[in-house]
Amino acid sequence: MSTDELLTKRRDLRQERLHLRLQQQSGQLEQPSRLRLLRRDIARIETVLSTREKQPAEAVAPAKKK
Predict the structure, then answer these.
(1) Tens-of-pLDDT digits for all 66 residues of the chain?
(2) CB-CB contact of 23 with 29 (8 Å)
(3) Does the reported pTM lie above 0.85?
(4) I need a labelling partner for 47 at 20 to 30 A (CA). Which of 2, 13, 24, 58 fits?
(5) How far apart are CA 8 and CA 60, in angstroms?
(6) What CA–CA distance (Å, rounded) separates 14 from 45?
(7) Do residues 3 and 52 lie in contact, with contact meaning Cβ atoms separated by under 8 Å?
């Protein structure tokens, strides 16, 4: 996925997580495990995004060889 798609997906998942947390507070949440899955998906996307941010910096300054 492109970076823009990942950012959009992260925003959508965060919004869905907010709605599920509100349902949980009001006692209407039917699938509590969905919250954990959303949290993990968001973490995966953030990991990919942070890795992509670090890659150009590593390409500019390669490690020194002995």
Answers:
(1) 889 999 999 999 999 999 999 999 999 989 999 999 999 999 999 999 999 988 866 665 566 665
(2) yes
(3) no
(4) 24
(5) 28
(6) 11
(7) yes
